[in-house]
Amino acid sequence: xxxxxxxxxxxxxWLHILAMVYWLGGEWGVFQTSYKxxxxxxxxxxxxxxxDTAYRIDIxxxxxxxxxxxxxxxxxxxxxxxxxxxxxxxxxWIVWAAWMGVxxxxxxxxxxxxxxTLNFIEDCTRYLLIPTLIITAxxxxxxxxxxxxGEGEGWYAAKVLTYGLALIIGVILRWVMHExxxxxxxxxxxxxxxxxxxxxxxxxxGRGVAYVYWxxxxxxxxxxxxxxx
Length: 229
Description:
The protein is mostly helical. It has one domain. It is built from six helices and no strands. Keywords: Membrane, Transmembrane, Transmembrane helix.
């Protein structure tokens, strides 16, 4: 316990770096695997194997994305850029544990009927979280809190804002992966040119927004590391 008290911030920073690595690295892995998933020249079985690989890589990215939120808020409290400590921190980590439970349950049940329900719950968490992050970041810049945004502190609200914007892109990419499940059920019955065309259109959109995603992730890292304002 004494070790934790002495090194709490350093340990949280280390975990934060790991979470960012898994987020960025995982998204790159899914991006590359997607080329094989939508390649009609490959056999259906091989494409399914690549899709399974994409989901196995993606779970690490999702773990990083979800874990960054409590880590960032916990460190923010230690940096005195927001007042949400004590019971707020405990509640936040409990919510994180529940969220992780839903995320991994969805991962373990992919392809089964319950998967859609679990994914819907996961999607809903983002529909609630994204506007909350963006609105609180904006109100903080307006001097209304909950985050401090004075001289030398504005980087934190900026980081929250770019993180929230990145989650919007993440939702779009989730929709693309959701579509894989639906379309490949149809392809299991045999080749379908219309389905292949739809897959190509959706993956083209996904690859386009992925570049915006990486820029936002890089900005989030920049604000957290450099603290420019």
